[in-house]
Specification:
Elements (H helix, E strand, L loop, with lengths): L5 E6 L6 E10 L4 H8 L6 E12 L1 H16 L3 E5 L3 H9 L8 E2 L2 H8 L1
Parallel strand pairs: 2-3, 3-4, 4-5
Antiparallel strand pairs: 1-2
């Protein structure tokens, strides 16, 4: 059986106060621990997760996104998702998180709103 993977890579941002992380893979129970270990230490004033290459998000992945959002809000840092796939957007919507976590069609659009 294939173990889900999730790779994170730093993307380019137009502003040094904004960090963009590109996710590639699945945000699931098997990948959330390393995801949180990689993202929680980020100290940029604003963090944008480029979700355009995330093929699948399960409930543990949703929980990790909420944890990261709450963590950053507690530090007075901004957080947004960009480029959600249809599946990702549906999961976020069903969980009622579109009202909580800012979601944008593109990284550029997220940058405009977070600056």
């Amino acid at each position: 059986m294939h173990t889900p993977h999730l790779e994170l890579a730093r993307g380019s941002a137009s502003n040094q106060d904004v960090a963009v992380l590109k996710l590639d893979g699945k945000l699931t129970l098997e990948t959330v621990h390393s995801f949180l270990q990689s993202t929680r230490p980020e100290r940029a004033k604003a963090l944008i997760l480029d979700m355009s290459r995330v093929q699948f998000i399960d409930s543990a992945g949703v929980g990790a996104l909420v944890q990261l959002f709450v963590h950053r809000r507690g530090l007075k840092q901004k957080f947004a998702l960009a480029g959600l796939t249809n599946q990702g957007r549906a999961v976020i919507e069903v969980c009622g998180l579109l009202k909580l976590i800012p979601c944008y069609a593109t990284v550029a659009e997220a940058e405009q709103h977070l600056e």
